[in-house]
Automatic annotation (TrEMBL):
This is Signal peptidase (SPase) II. It comes from the Bacteria. The keyword Transmembrane helix applies. GO terms for molecular function: aspartic-type endopeptidase activity. One of its GO terms (biological process) is proteolysis. Keywords: Membrane, Transmembrane, Transmembrane helix. InterPro entries: Peptidase_A8. The lineage of its organism: Bacteria, Bacillati, Bacillota, Clostridia, Eubacteriales.
Amino acid sequence: MGKGADAIFIFFIAGALCSLIDKIFWPGSLDYIYLKGFFTFDLKDVYLTTCEVLLVVLAIKYREAWHQVKLRQEARDFARYVYTNVCREKVQKIPGQGHEYE
């Protein structure tokens, strides 16, 4: 899935960052693109909709591969990876001091 999965990830992160910026600078989403007779939207909506469309296209294209995926094992492997590489604090003792530092 290579480039397609990368594009999905990029569009999702871009949409999430746009949403975060909206929440920081305004009390909500500021829709600034108006299509007369249709609807109003912003760049965040474009990014997230593109992400959704690409996800559906790749899911249909690689539907045979999805049948071979064992989701429970994948979820366990991902949780183990997050725990060992992200969450676990590496604490070291500095000689001569009674403190523990990260």
